[in-house]
Amino acid sequence: MATTSRLKILSPKKTASKLINELPDDCTYEDIQYHLYVIQKIERGLNDVKEGKYFTHEQMKKKLAKWLNK
What we know:
Elements: H1 4-7, H2 12-22, H3 29-50, H4 57-68
Helix pairs in contact: 2-3
């Protein structure tokens, strides 16, 4: 399980450096790109939550109900 210290948002350079140091020596460029992509998406999601740009579970259930009933 991730600790809160791992969730701390670092600069992109520090994040990439930390990631590369943690990946196995036999990783591919694609492995590095994928992990950076995932980290970037998580950071964007965390920033959206901080800015209030999200739907609650109940709001999303209502939206889905509208789409599924059509």
